[in-house]
Write a structure and sequence with these properties.
With 159 residues, the chain is an alpha+beta fold. The chain has helices at 9-27, 45-51, 96-110, 125-133, and strands at 2-3, 55-61, 64-73, 79-87, 115-121, 137-143, 152-158. It has a 7-stranded mixed β-sheet. The longest helix is centred in the first third of the chain and has 19 residues, at 9-27. The model has no long low-confidence stretch (mean pLDDT 96).
């Protein structure tokens, strides 16, 4: 697990695009109807999220980046946000996602948070089940936001 600096942002962007490609294909998400999805990010998007106060970290396997995630404080100091966790398809089901969640939780705890929060595609019940197995609980379901063609469930992990 390592912090990713600007020199690694292009690799992180590749992981995000590949990792989110399976979600967009399954749920009818396109660059036209949801351009904010990481599968469609432009080259400067990783730096933009980091500039908002998030750190980005990742996992390597065999010398290449295979997973990454962002974590940082929200408006409520007791609650941090985990965003854009992605693992490339060929590296899934090997504990990489769990390691990324664990690292995000560690960083949030060290930052004084009592809760780690994530928003996911509500229709992605397989992903929700995975987060539930890691200890997250759904706290807000089916929220609609402008610019998204899907609803969002918010899940929280007590720290």
């Amino acid at each position: 697990m390592e912090e990713l600096g600007p020199d690694r942002y292009p690799e992180c962007l590749d992981v995000l695009r590949r990792g989110f490609a399976t979600v967009v294909a399954t749920h009818g998400i396109t660059a036209d109807n949801t351009p904010s999805n990481p599968a469609f990010w432009q080259d400067d998007e990783v730096a933009r999220v980091v500039a908002k106060g998030f750190s980005v970290f990742g996992v390597e396997h065999d010398g290449r980046l295979v997973g990454c995630a962002f974590v940082g404080p929200s408006r409520d100091a007791d609650r941090w946000s985990l965003r854009h966790l992605a693992v490339v398809p060929e590296a899934r089901h090997q504990g990489i996602g769990e390691a990324l969640v664990g690292e995000a939780a560690r960083r949030a705890r060290e930052g004084g948070a009592r809760v780690l929060r994530i928003g996911i595609v509500a229709e992605n019940t397989r992903l929700a089940d995975w987060y539930h197995r890691l200890g997250f609980v759904t706290v807000d379901a089916g929220q609609r936001y402008p610019g998204l063609v899907f609803s969002v469930d918010h899940l929280e992990l007590p720290l």
